[in-house]
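Sequence only, no structure available. Ideas?
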Amino acid sequence: MLTEKVNGHTLKLYDTIEELPVVNFQRFNRYALIDAQVGSDLEDVDVKLTRIAKFVGAGDKINAAEELNNLRQNIYFVQQGISPKHYAFVAFIAELDGEKVTDLSDDSVKAIYAKLNEVPVGWLGRMYERLKKKSKLK
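Reply:
I predicted one. Tokens follow.
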């Protein structure tokens, strides 16, 4: 376990995927997959637009249409304040401010994420990448 203090919160984090309970592992995979396919932020919008342009230029209508759907979903996420990447991070939280995190339903993940709304995005992004990188299954 890893203990981090940030913006008045104390988080106990699972340090690797091997430590995750099965439900957390499933939630991590779900949100990480959505992030990989759809994206989480405006930078991903630019990536999608570039990919769509390449597919259109190559005459690949099927992949262009798929990327267009992913772009649409990404823009919706940005508008609604939903970040699959940040939701995936929640799966690594074992305790938040001394309370065990056992419910990872969509509503619970959103509530936990809302509690962390003042945590710097840079910290959260670096921590997520660190845990994800460290957690590569072999």
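The two ends are 20 Å apart (CA to CA).
Hope that gets you unstuck.
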